[in-house]
Design brief:
single chain, 104 residues, alpha/beta, Leucine-rich repeat, LRR (right-handed beta-alpha superhelix), 4-stranded parallel β-sheet, 1 helix, 16% helix, 12% strand
Length: 104
């Protein structure tokens, strides 16, 4: 299997899991969604209330949803190497957030 199709399979698997997150019990503490080509965050992530680490490095994100503030347990957020021009003000509501990587 070549590297491109391996990445596509990983991306498709992640999308499938996240799209079903409201139907299955999925509440990870750490989630690595690096290099999946995501253009936006799946809404199902907002239900991952115990999430402490979210790695979104090297995707195609242009904006972050305002509901990111609902991830109150989040301590480490990496959105570096995306298309983000700014982070939403709602990030400030994340009182547990200790580390944020957002440099393009």
């Amino acid at each position: 299997m070549n590297q491109a199709s391996s990445g596509e399979n990983r991306a498709e698997a992640a999308r499938r899991i996240l799209s079903n997150a409201t139907r299955v019990e999925l509440d990870p503490k750490e989630l690595d969604l690096t290099k999946l080509g995501l253009r936006n965050l799946p809404d199902a992530l907002r239900f991952c209330q115990d999430l402490t680490v979210l790695n979104l490095r090297s995707n195609q994100l242009e904006s972050m949803p305002t509901w990111i503030k609902e991830l109150q347990a989040l301590q480490d957020l990496d959105v570096s190497s995306n298309q983000l021009s700014q982070l939403p003000e709602s990030i400030g509501a994340l009182s547990e957030l200790k580390k944020t990587e957002s440099v393009a």
